[in-house]
Amino acid sequence: MSYFISKTIEGQFDEVIERVTNELKFIGFGVLTVIDVKKTLKMKINDDFKPYTILGACNPHFASKALRLEDKLGVVLPCNVVVIEQAPNVIEVAAIDPIAMMGGIGNELLDKLAKEVSCKLEKMITDL
Fold first, then answer.
1. Candidates 3.40.930.10, 3.40.109.10, 3.30.565.10, 3.30.310.70; correct CATH number of 4-126?
2. Residues 6+ away with beta carbon under 8 Å from 111
C-alpha cells in the first residue's frame, strides 16, 4: 500500500500551488504552513534542489475528531500536500494517504475517519 495519493499535471509551479490551495479550501481544508524546500535547502546547506513546496493542510473538524480519538495524532498533523516540479511545467502533487498512516493504530473509529479524509484528499487531487 502506498503512503500517498498523487497526480502529475502540466502547469507553472506557482500556479499549481495556487490551484492546490484553492482545491483544498473547496474541500474544507486550510493551509496552515507553507515550506519552500528548495529555498530552505539553498539557504541552509547551499543545495540546489528542484522546486518543492510542502503545504500543511488542516480541516479543523476532522482534526478535532481525530485528536479526541487519539491525542498523539498531532505527530502526523497537519496533512501534508507536496507540490514538486519534476520537469519544466510537469508538476506532481502528492498528499498523505490517511488510510495508510492510520491503519496500524488499531482504532476502528479512527480508521473510519481516515477513510473520509482520504476520500476528500483523493477528490482534491483528481479535480486538479
1. 3.30.310.70
2. 99, 102, 103, 105
